[in-house]
Specification:
Distance between the termini: 27 Å
Strand order of the largest sheet: 1-2-6-5-4-3-7-8-9
Radius of gyration: 22 Å
Number of domains: 3
CATH class of the largest domain: Alpha Beta
Structural class: alpha/beta
């Protein structure tokens, strides 16, 4: 949650600075490193701003800031379920903070806590085949069922199917928008957007009132991949925004998965290109989930995990998971041993082990063994 004392008046400084033309994510973060808080940026002298690496033209624009420029954002934030997440907030997603140009502010409708959940991005063409739509929903069903948040961009086609697939099984989903959150683009997805807000969250770095522009979608795409452990590309042409998302993912050190298709399908050529570039070919949701188990543990290992955090994770588990976890030793334990020690079937144990692995509570070992960690 935001740090204590982070009141509406303080948010105005963040919002006003973010609205200055030419500031951008990199400049904003650089200014925070020098001045600590946007309020100090707005009261800095021209020479102080120039010494911080700001151009003379941008420094003059910063000095001309009118705090009332943020009125539209402040009014929006007073609505129910509308949030602003800032770079200094305790709950700013750690994965997103790792990318080279993270957004200093995020506008959110819905569950802000979901931004720090384990996520898989599912993206693809706006003009998919009927089979690709069906496959996307099936994959999203599987991801959401085992507890992953499905993240996409609310575009037509594959994005729609990914969000809907998670919603179908009462799972969680996040849509990253390329507009202000006072509008939905495309407008035909308005009903879907409301469902997403109920099942998860809508997210954007763009201030309230911002209309879609071609250059905003690549910026949106870096957030989709930045929030996620990995990116699954279902169908994509060679020249498409989907490949921009995949490129962002590779640059951010995320895993990229691609689904092969017919060599005669132009919407499969982007996936085939990604596979040649090193993306992992996937045929089933399990192909993705096997890698994500290791990826989630790697992500968890980058930060200190306290006893309180482990307790919070186990407290959120159902009784069946706790019963199985108690039977897993800190030394390698076989599935056969778990079957003998519980009333669960092999299929039930395999499914629960995957969830426990994604939560960072167990670790898989060679030979199909598992141990607590």
């Amino acid at each position: 949650m935001p740090s204590s004392g982070f009141v509406l008046s303080e948010r105005r400084y963040w919002l006003a600075l973010w609205r200055v033309k030419g500031v951008g994510a990199k400049n904003f973060i650089s200014l925070l490193e020098v001045f600590s808080h946007p309020k100090r940026v707005l009261t800095a002298t021209l020479s102080e701003l120039k010494n911080a690496g700001v151009s003379a033209e941008l420094a003059e624009r910063i000095q001309r800031i009118d705090l009332s420029d943020a009125d539209q954002d402040i009014k929006w934030l007073q609505n129910d379920d509308c949030h602003l997440m800032c770079w200094h907030d305790d709950d700013y997603p750690s994965l997103l903070k790792e990318i080279h140009d993270p957004p200093p502010v995020l506008f959110i409708r819905g569950n802000r806590a979901l931004l720090s959940s384990l996520q898989i991005a599912v993206v693809g063409t706006r003009n998919p085949s009927a089979l690709a739509l069906k496959t996307t929903r099936a994959f999203a069903n599987s991801f959401a069922t085992i507890g992953l948040t499905v993240t996409s961009g609310l575009a037509l086609g594959i994005d729609q199917a990914a969000h809907q697939g998670a919603i179908d099984v009462s799972g969680k989903t996040i849509a990253v928008a390329a507009t202000g959150l006072d509008r939905v683009y495309p407008a035909s997805n308005r009903d879907l957007a409301e469902k997403i807000i109920e099942a998860g969250a809508m997210v954007s770095e763009f201030p309230i009132g911002v209309h879609p522009q071609a250059g905003y979608f690549p910026r949106r795409n870096r957030i989709i991949s930045g929030l996620s452990l990995g990116v699954l590309v279902v169908e994509a042409a060679l020249k498409s925004g989907t490949l921009v998302t995949a490129k962002h993912a590779m640059e951010q050190g995320r895993e990229v998965f691609a689904m092969p298709g017919s060599i005669h399908n132009p919407q499969a050529k982007g996936c085939h290109y990604l596979i040649r570039q090193g993306a992992k070919l996937v045929e089933t949701a399990e192909d993705v989930l096997e890698d994500l188990g290791a990826l989630s543990l790697a992500a968890a290992s980058k930060s200190f995990v306290s006893d309180e955090l482990v307790s919070a994770k186990t407290d959120s588990l159902g009784d069946d998971y706790l019963q199985l976890l108690e039977k897993i030793a800190f030394a390698p334990t076989s599935v056969d041993d778990l079957i003998e020690g519980t009333d669960f079937t092999a299929e039930e144990i395999s499914s629960m082990l995957l969830v426990l692995e994604l939560e960072g509570l167990v670790l898989s070992s060679p030979g199909g063994l598992f141990c607590r960690c």
